[in-house]
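ok so heres the complex, two chains, lmk if somethin looks off
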Amino acid sequence: MDAHALKASLWLLLALPRIVVANDLPPVDFLKAYLAERHDHADSQVLSDTHWSQLLQEPSHLPPHAYTEPAAYDSQRIDDTFRSAAARLDSPTRLIYLHEAWRMLQWDLGFTKARPEDVRLPHTTDDWGSEQAALNAIKAGVEADIFRQSLALFGNAHSTFAAKYAVAAQILRERIAATPEDKREVRNVEPEVLARFMSLPEGSPLDAYDAQYLGALLESEINRHTVARASFRGIREIATPFRIARVAAAYRDNQSYVTPPCTDDFRYREGVASLDPTREPVCFVDANDRAVYAWYNEAFRRQAGLVRESQAETSPLAKLLALLVPFGAMLDVLAVAEFAEALATEDLTVSGEVAEEEAVAAEERMGGLMCRRL
Amino acid sequence: MVNHPRLAVALLLMASASWRPVEAGTVQFTQVDTTDAYEAGQRLIESFKFNLRGAQRYAATQTRLTTQADFDPFAAQWSRANVAQLKYQWRNATGQPRTTLYHALSGKAPPAAMGVGEAQGDAAYAMPEWQRYYRERNPSVYAHVVENEPSVLDAIEDFRLPGEAAGVGHRFDAEMRGLRTLERDIVQNHLTPGGRVSMWTSSPPCPVCRRAMQIVADAYDLDIHVFHLPAPTQDSPQVFRLLQMTKNRMLRHFHQRVSNERTVPDAPQCVRS
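and the predicted structre for the whole thing:
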């Protein structure tokens, strides 16, 4: 029996509905494989963000909102390219099932939530300040000590900035762990930067070089296709912009609400939680990553606006925060599928699988979106 | 005229034929392999972007540059430019560790590269009123050569390689610009000598640059470690592809950025950074 026949048989056995959580997902990049398949079959139809939203979210006669559920896998809704992309990723030891591929797309493109079943939180934990904050921060892949330290440095008034530095510090910690000592210099991995960041007393300004270093690290991660890495908890990592948004949401959850927007079982409270994620209050754990990102976008702009207004040019904090304000320029676009597609296509071009013209075309589509939204 | 004591001492010592400082600096070269290429490339992209941002501010002040076609020759030239980033780790007067970054690019300065002005010879490689366009923000420094400024590199009589035609030779290579700017900061006491330089370059340094590195290392007791990408004809084509694609992408957006800058200076740009 060849691999594909075996796979088909196994799939029949596994046809019963089964929840696939992030931990079960194999560490492969389905979106990239899908784009490569489309290239191989000269499929020139442009896939918009709307296409993915309609495919991967639960169909409804109502417009989608912050808490729309991801759609269950439906074999009727996938095409041949989808199937061959999954086959492309098969390895002798690990076959990729179609429902897994479906879930990968939902996870990587931001259609999933941060409820206990999504992030496999084994028990209640308040290491991050509250259970809801823990759920968001664990999905963001940011450890509790970094989470607390970044907020201690920036304060609640600048929590959206703190979220960026928390993610940058976590990325640095993971790079330090993954880089042999003799490779640190060439790869510009500086454990001293993390050590200084973690040892600063509350409210202290970051050293200018450290701030620049962490900012550059974050920017390079945002511009990189980083799908399928595992977080510190072994969960499939979400895209960097979503990580930042989830950390900021966790900070928000640790502040008080007049009426909690979530129920005790982590569902949004009807009549309290806003369906429009750009308006508070939002039940973040029940909202998908994109919705949390939409909230973050507004929150960041609000905080950045206050920084600009209070702009004492000489204030070390204002200067530090100003380093990150330019990221706001492309905030809207980072969450759309076109952005992920542009990065994945760039990856395929670098590895020689598609021509540079295709990367340029994907880039132009994204660029058009940016200029429209500004 | 040499009016900085530190430079004067360095030049005096070098005048001696048998000169070799007791604590001579070291220079080491490492070719970046594929596994390290991404991170090294990020350093270079950062420095390229720093230089490009200044060029954009300059272009925004030039009313005769308004169309994409105006910028095409410039883009073609800067697309081929070599990039270097120097990271200098030093200690201040109280012994605290500090780091300064020098962002360097090879070739002509924006006015000459954009065909604006009549600068010829060395002047084509100098950026007039650079502080107006290249906004340094600690720890980032714009690497540039100042005309007629004394340097220990004056010991190099000819910046051309054997067989190269008359011209500026390698005097304005990215590595040279980085070294000259670091030297200036040392002799002007903005920072202290005796530190460590990590330098990333987008191609193997030429023999003239290698000699310059040793001279600067010896004069200011520096340990220089150069991480260079392989020559284009060697392996690891992916290393170049990503760097080149990113440069091309940024240059493609140059006209758009200049237009935005003209409308609202320093406003967020609607192009990917």
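quick notes: Residues 289-309 of chain A form the longest helix (21 residues). thats all i got rn
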